[in-house]
Amino acid sequence: MAASDVSLRECHVHPVVLFSICDSFERRNEDAKRVIGTLLGTNVHGSVEVTNCFSVPHNESEDEVAVDMEFARNMYELHRRVNPNETIVGWYATGIDITEHSVLIHEYYNRECNNPIHMTVDTSLRDGKATIKGWQSQIMGVTSKTQGVLFTPVPVEIVFYEPEKVGVDMVVEGKSSGRRTIDVVNDLENVGKSAAKLQEMLAIVISYVDEVLAGKIPADNTIGRYLLDLASTVPQLEPREFEEMLNNNMKDLLMVVYLSNLVGTQLQLNEKINMLELTIK
Amino acid sequence: MAAASEVSPVARVQIDGLVILKIIKHCEEEGTGGTELVQGVLLGLVVENTLEITNCFPFPRHTDDEDFDEVHYQMEMMRNLRHVNIDHLHVGWYQSTMHGSFLNKALLDSQFNYQHSIEESVVLIYDPIKTSRGTLCLRAYRLTPLMMQMYKDGDFTPDCIRKANLSFQEMFEEIPIVVRNSHLINAMLCEIETKAPTQPSNFLSLATGAVLEKQLRLLMESVDEVNQDNNKYMNFMRNTIKQDMAKNQHKYKRQQENTARQSRGDPPLPEEDLTKIFKPIPTPTRLDGLLTSGQIKHHSNEVNQFAAQSFGKLFMAEALQPKTE
């Protein structure tokens, strides 16, 4: 087993990967207890960013493990067609424990890439939550004798692209509603929702201030400074100036709305004219 | 066949959270944040009148080398996905758009092909730029049965459109989307939330200028296009009228000559084929006009929605300021 050049410092995971893993765990075969797959992404000097993954069929029994390597290679090629930047950075497995089979699989992946990261996702929710852990392998033991493998932990962080955050926010909302469905709503309702969220946050802050004033909670200077910053971000404007700005903005918007409605009406008219019979012919 | 009735076979589209994230990720990485068109395939199944989309995979860009076989790629992907028990039933495709201008001939062609082979297929339009402003913008569209019929006939002359009573609003129909997650994913979401608490986005920012400008510019361009199309049509009508008048004049002259000859006792001149003298002018197709009109309608809807949203934000900001006494 080749020694690693750069040890892995940290691992950044995108939520897509986690969703994919959960999904493939749910779709596993009847007898499989866990699912494994390849992790794709980039590895820059020990900082790994995992952006994609796909599951690999495998068979695991008491004494042997078989991984469909042909499949893995095939899928990797297909994924490379779409995104040539993604390389194999490691592999994942569901379930908490690292078994001897994991060592064998890790060795296979070591051949595919340099210092693969191994990620475990606890889908059995043993601790009451889905723990996500990252591991890298280190050789231990005395040289010239049989050497073993030790898996040391690597800190895992979840990172988002900007639009991903929006997507996750939206999906997260369905968490609390019964059958976990969310409708895609239009813009105005979103403003209403944001306003409600702001109101909630303000209510929390106000209740905190009340309690400090009543002496129930000791005052904290840092929070006090944050509150001061918050209060000062409301721009100090002359009421007249502000009204003018507001009215200007509103006039712009109204004009645009009128224009677009005008265009809409024109289109309807156009439609009607097209439908008229040509009496000349 | 169900398509013959007015009720569409798909009343709702149910998407897994996974699919949404995959589409977002693909557009983000491939399309460099929304400047290029990215496409992909949707997989899932149909349950009663709901179309469930459970997975998807992206298409590589067409600018790649020539020996790339799309069909082969698709087949390989689907075969591999079947191995891991992912639904491999093709139910539609997705496409990214820039600022909402997606109603063009290419979309129509692709969607027709899809809907022709798979009846319940939909096209998902994802707008990455709008999404990065704070709200997820994902819409599902299908061609109406009327439109399918017209496309099959391939004839978009004014007469056919009039007969079918096809207006630009009846070309595509939008299907409501519902997002669904399984229990395990919910547990995972809890974990994600605690590990990376979602920061407040700049959704409530009042800077509306740039967006309005962009949308208005697009609206103006589309209106120009419709204008040009209409001008072409009017030219055609004018030419037809002129031609008709010329034909009538010719006939009249012929008749006069014939009566003159008859009165002199000469044989009448043979009837000439009028179409040889006056070449028939081809009727222009109205398809582009229809598409552009649909596009304009979409744009103006977007502008209205955006304006409504901005009004809300402005009123909220007003509440924070002391009123003028």
What this model shows, in words?
With 281 residues, chain A is an alpha/beta fold. Helices cover 46% and strands 23% of the residues of chain A. Chain A contains seven helices and eleven strands. In chain A, β2 (36-44) and β3 form a beta hairpin. Chain B has helices at residues 17-30, 70-83, 105-117, 128-132, 145-153, 158-164, 183-195, 209-264, 274-277, 287-319; strands at residues 12-16, 39-47, 50-58, 90-96, 122-126, 138-143, 172-175, 177-180. In chain B, α8 packs antiparallel against α10 (287-319). In chain B, a hairpin with a 2-residue loop joins β2 and β3 (50-58). By secondary structure, chain B is of the alpha/beta class. Chain B has ten helices and eight strands. At the A-B interface, α1, β3, α2, α4 and β11 of A face α1, β3, α2, α4 and α6 of B.
The number of helical elements of chain A comes to 7
Count every helix of chain B, treating DSSP H or I runs of 4 or more residues as helices.
10
How many strands, which pairing sense, and closed or not: the largest β-sheet of chain B? 8 strands, mixed
Instruction: Give the strand content of chain A.
Output: 15-25%
Unreliable spans of chain A: none
Number of strands of chain A: 11
**Biggest β-sheet: strands ordered side by side in the sheet of chain A:** 9-8-7-6-2-3-1-10
Overall 3D geometry of chain B? elongated
How do the SSEs of chain A run, as a string of H and E?
EHEEEEHEHEEEEHEHHH
> Largest contact between protein chains?
A-B, 96 and 109 residues
Shape, principal axes of CA atoms of chain A? extended
Alpha-beta content class of chain B: alpha/beta
Helix and strand composition category of chain A? alpha/beta
